[in-house]
Amino acid sequence: MAGVTIANVVKHYGPLEILKSVSIDIADGEFVVLVGPSGCGKSTLLRMLAGLETITGGEIFIGDRLVNDLPPKDRDIAMVFQSYALYPHMTVADNMAFSLKLKKVEKSARDSKIKAAADILGLTALLDRYPRQLSGGQRQRVAMGRAIVRDPQVFLFDEPLSNLDAKLRVQVRSEIKEMHQRLGTTTIYVTHDQIEAMTMADKIVVMREGHIEQIGTPLDLYDRPANMFVAGFIGSPAMNFLYGSPEGAGFDLGNGLSLPFAAAASTRTLGIRPEHVRIDPNGIPAIVSLIEPTGAETQVVFRLGDQTLTAALRERVAVRPGDKLNIALDVDQLHQFDRNQQRVG
User: Fold this and answer.
1) CA atoms within 13 A on the CB side of 323
2) pLDDT tens string 191-249
3) How far apart are alpha carbons 303 and 324 in whole angstroms?
4) What was the pLDDT predicted at 166?
5) Phi, psi of 160 (to 5 degrees)
6) DSSP H or E stretch at residue 146
7) Residue 55, beta-bridge partner list
8) Which residues touch 287 (CB under 8 Å, ≥6 apart)?
9) Is residue 218 a contact partner of residue 227, using CB atoms and an 8 Å limit?
10) Cα–Cα distance measured from residue 96 to residue 86, given in angstroms and rounded to the nearest whole number
11) Each residue of 289-344: pLDDT tens digit?
12) Quick count: other Cβ atoms within 10 Å of Cβ 236?
């Protein structure tokens, strides 16, 4: 196992700059998730780590080895792809053994590694089957098993759950996390799904348009987002944003509405998580716009003048669109952002 250092990495395709001086330090054994919208550069960065894309500038170290110019086979990494990339004419066992055969590993050692990986992933009963005889979740576990038997220094996952349905995604997500806890191998995982990032990562790297917006633990990013992009990207339902300006001891929302919150002079936007909004007869007036019961909670969208606010209510509420009632915000949980969308305070 080894840590990974990404130092001022740049990637150009002709005049198009895909990655803009990206730097990340990943500790040995850490599970790091690269997350961001499509086109932010996260998969390109992963492919550069794997040696599948050339590096325009900067340095990548795996352990203490500079790997910029090393071919993929010499980097001691194992990659799990979105598309599984299994050989259809090979059994599960043969798919898992393929890289070991190329390395001329003795059959007894191959069998031992395959058995151990199959035990970890619950594949023992499937070793004689072919990929066409497996479900999507089983195929992804085979792809993971093929990576495990290589005993690499680093695992790379490129959106491995994108082809699975919602229930399978939750299951395989748990299996990947359990695998990491058992093996302790440094893992770098790419996804556009912030729920995957929050539930799996030791550390999250939020990317946008080729650069890093923020790096931190899941709760660091959730509780103290550096800017409005991170605040709106991390968390589901997304953070609410209310636009206005400080006015005395309140925050003026327009349309005659004001929040009882003394914001900093530079604040132009307040952020509040939906779970920190509640119905309160002493709160500010609002109109119910939409109700979405999810079982464990009810999400209610309110209109405050010309702005909207979503509340995630744990209690069952008997309200309808158009109802008028009052709501309150937990002022201790308000986030402040300036005109440049950066965190204030």
Assistant:
1) 14
2) 999 899 999 999 999 999 999 999 999 999 999 999 999 999 999 899 999 999 999 88
3) 10
4) 82
5) -70, -15
6) helix 136-148
7) none
8) 302, 303, 322, 323, 324
9) no
10) 9
11) 999 998 889 999 999 999 999 999 998 888 999 999 999 999 999 999 999 999 99
12) 12
Strand ranges in the chain using DSSP code E only, listed in sequence order: 4-13, 16-26, 31-35, 57-62, 65-66, 77-80, 154-158, 186-191, 203-208, 211-216, 240-243, 245-247, 250-254, 257-259, 269-272, 277-293, 298-304, 307-313, 324-329, 335-337
Amino acid identity of 215?
A: I
Q: Which residue is it, tokens 């080895």?
A: 65
Vertex 193 angle, CA 192 and 198, to 5°: 120
Q: What is the CA radius of gyration of the chain?
A: 24
Q: Locate the DSSP E strands across 209-315.
A: 211-216, 240-243, 245-247, 250-254, 257-259, 269-272, 277-293, 298-304, 307-313
**Model pLDDT, residue 165:** 83
Six token digits for residue 196: 């995957």
Least confident interval from 17-21, 137-141, 221-225, 268-272:
137-141
CA distance 93 to 126: 8
Tokens of 168: 């399978």
Distance CA 141, CA 129 (A): 13
DSSP state of 237: S
Query: What are the tens digits of pLDDT across the range 14-36?
Result: 899 999 999 999 999 999 999 99
CA proximity to 300, closest of 316, 285, 281, 280: 316
User: What's the CA gap between 147 and 203, in Å, rounded?
Assistant: 22
